[in-house]
Protein: Alpha/beta-hydrolase
Amino acid sequence: MSTLLRSSFLLTVLFTPFFATLIHNTNAAPAPPSLAEALGNSFKKRLMLPNVPLASDINGAHILLKNDLDSMAPKYSFLLLSHPRDYYAGMAACTSMGDGGYIYIAGTPAANEMVSLLKNNPVAQVEVSAYSQFWVFNGIPGIFSNCLAVNKNTGLTDWIPCSTTLPTVCYNSAPRRTLVIQDSARQVKINIPGVGQLQGWRDQNSFRFLGIPFAEAPVGKLRFAAPVPKAPFTTTLDATYYKDVCPQTAPSDGLGASLLSGLLNGAVESEDCLNLNVYTPSLKGTGEALLPVMFYIHGGGFTSFSGSVVLFDGGNLGSRGGVVTVTTNYRLGMLGFTENESAFPRSDVSGIQGIRDQILALEWTKKNIAAFGGDPDRITIFGESAGAASLRALLSVPFAFGLYNNVIGQSDPIDLPFKSPRDSANIQALFFLSMGCASNDLACARSKSIGDLMDAQVKANAMMVTQQNWTTTFLVDRPTVDHDLIPGDFFELVKTGKHNTKANVMWGSTKDEAGRFVSTYYPNKETINATNYESVFFKTIGSQRVDLILNNASSLFKPNMASDDPASDLFNDFYTKYYLYCPLKYFSREITKSGGKVYQFRFNRGRGIPLADALGYCGANTGRVCHAQDLSPVFGTEAMLPLTFQTGDDARFARQIVDRWTTFAKTGNPNPTTDMLGVENSNLDVAGVNWSAYDSSTNPMLELNIESKMSTNADQAACSFMDSILQYDFMFRNTTFAP
Structure:
């Protein structure tokens, strides 16, 4: 999957002169170090400006924007400085923030929108509700010591004494950040006790502080060890650009893979990669109400991607939903999941390093997010694919339970259990041997270059898939049930009520998850018929269980011979249900037995990966919604790439998804209440459809579409067969029965 996404991204950016030039220069470089230098110079092109204001001096800065997520519609963005000042101090504060006071012309679309936002907005409603008048820019000097203020109740301006202390409305002329438009000229600093000073910038949607290290570089003796919290900064941290991402390409992948990784992640790869990004629409002043926090964990099979992928930009979630968004990196592959307690003490090789990184990033967030306007007591963790599997781990780690309140999981292949200690020790030995080290020689493994390590990972993973094809080629590297950090398999913990029973859960899948992997298992169309279609099941399931399907569920899983590709269609249908859809329903039922609240969804609409999904099995013209096609609607970021747009029904659908996700982050319930601030309760696609919590009698699920609706007992026959007869991998893998 990651190779496909990287390839599509490269094709997209090739249409822009900036990246065409970058690629030309990179291809001219004589060696890989020049590639890194070329990419690094590109990504670090922003400059830290001098004389930048300190957020605590501004004491309340909020971006107000009616963000309809339509990339073709005009946008009017305003900067509200909520601390009351006299007129001239207010105008000076606007100037210090890189813009001037807003020139108010009554009756214009921008003026009308500003007045509307001063009455109701998701970002600073408490702050604006205390005032009816706000300073705007005088078109002429003050008249008889009077200055111009706008009245939000009448929409008219009044001349009042300039010494009156009021909040101030400034322009926010910054453009929306996209892949190739990144105007970082409007910068601001914040001080965080115990961390240091950071300097970031704002665009149309949010203030953004990028590449904040939360751990020391995991190199040398820290390679394979637990993460160590970052020491406080001694100078101002440049948080205007994304920092390095975790290693994810091998020299054997070729030079093009490194280029693709850099373009996709917006940064170069290195082991010094444990950093996070914060997007906030509001830098709160003293005593001002804090906003809910959404902490995103990226997917990519635990081997690819980062928190800086352009589709994960948190600006739209913040400006429309009134939340603070955090995205994080964590160690990937064998750097993040090397485990063998029988060979190494945990003080040297902690195991599950990637999950430990996520927990440290969450701890950093809970401790420091108030400095960015976020509420440390209202944190929702959300993720897709391997990111959703990470949430499963976090629901299992007792000391992490207090770090979050709500969980949103998208497309967790939850059928696949985490690794056993035996399997982890096995792949660790293969990994070390592939580096030319003895299986217990940690010093040797730590001495190897990152290139040697990544090539060894490719070899070890391939050998592991040969031994255990049921793990699939996409999730070999994953957490281990080590009975230390993770005390038991999720299946066992949920059965006994030892998972985080206090967390509200919202999870689901797309309707054609497995379609994403058709090209891997069926690079060419395969001919099957009514008598040999069992070959589809043998892709990852053993013969005993294939017999269970043929003998007990042949009517449920048969090829559609009227299709032009019956093998791929059967593969898609069966494995979507087996790996994701049905086991999610199973776990929903078990969690509710412990009194937990669960909301289930299924994406029946999505947006394809640009260009990659223009054609092929997951193409836009097929009506399928495959794995990862829920990403851009969740972040509202389809128009972040060149030559892409988000308008019409696509924008409408993105509004619905963003509003549901942020509503859940605010209350733990995806149904907006009538007193909720912002836009959720005025969006009829959301407020007009009640999303029922899961109950085992009707198996309710929200079928997400342009006009979403609830379903009950969908695909019940197939799921009942899998629950009780076929059973899931988490029910018997790592135990005595492994057919």
